[in-house]
Amino acid sequence: MTAVRRRYADGRFGQVHARIAQPVRDCGQRPLLLIHMSPMTGRIFEALTAEMGEDRLSVAFDTPGYGQSDAPDTQPTIETYAAALGEAMDALTPDRRFDILGYHTGSLTATALAALSPARVRRLVLIGAPLFTPQERATFKSYYGPTSPSADGEHLAKRWRGFVHHYQRPGMSLDEVAEHFEEAMTGGANAWWGHAAAFDYDLEAALKALAHPTLILKTGDDLARQTEPARDLSPHIDMLDAPGWGHGFATTHARDVAGVLRAWLDAESREARAAVMDAPAPASALGPIWPPPEAGSFAPE
Residue 290's pLDDT band (boundaries 50, 70, 90)? Predict the structure, then answer.
């Protein structure tokens, strides 16, 4: 794996923190921008950034307001997040087309950035592409809304229970869950802004309007059911079923994920991409979904 280094780029809200890996010599591959879910940080992609950095510039920013990136003063939209990350990418690699991988909220941000800069973005990979019914949208928005601290720390305990519910899948220890939990705390009191922006964004309309080749990874997590309707939304979409990959998979199975990304991103034609989709998925992607679907999208109270 290639070493991952840290640096900052100047952005509209201040500094934008990045984890970057790249080969010693330019291999001719398009740079890859990785956009994390909310309220996490680019750290969730550190292992994957190192893997992809073996043959292309790979950049995982902390979205403004999370991790070590400066925060906006007011609640952003998905388009605002997209524009800010596009500007940061311009600062690192001006005038080059690039691919984007987005994860949950990052999937929406990736889609919005492709719409804002269609000539600059080449292909999209979306880890989850949730299409909510109006009722689901209202439920998710209320669950992931603002919270107030409590003297007994119950607000943290509730968040922790949610992390254990979603992250402690077979092969992931509580120590590893705790590392992800630390990242989720960096958003502070406004950590809910990313979710709020996501629930206000019309992903279905945006995907229908895009002409970019798009790979959706339908992973085994809390948005698998909402991602399924995107399968036949556009002729530009390929969907890979990966029930064995859930939260944390970009770390625990980084090499397998990189193999899938590299094969699909580097396929020269639609036919070559179809051949990638017809090939067997890595064994790690084919395990059982966890938690089981009957466990629901939210941690039990």
Answer: confident
**Structure-token match 């607000």, residue found:** 155
45-62 pLDDT, tens digit each: 999 999 999 999 999 999
Task: Provide the residue ranges of all domains of the chain, joining segments of one domain with +.
Answer: 5-295
Nearest to 130 by CA among 37, 54, 209: 37
Q: Which two tokens stand for residue 258?
A: 């990189």
Percent of the chain clearing pLDDT 70 (strictly above): 97
Strand locations in the chain, DSSP E?
Answer: 5-11, 14-21, 32-35, 58-61, 98-103, 121-127, 214-219, 237-242
**CA gap 210, 112 in Å, rounded:** 10
Cα distances (Å, whole numbers) of residue 212 to 96, 97, 105: 16, 13, 19
Distance CA 29, CA 89 (A): 16
At 112, is the pLDDT very low, low, confident or very high (cuts 50, 70, 90)? very high
Closest CA to 144 of 202, 221, 81, 196: 196
CATH of domain 5-295: 3.40.50.1820
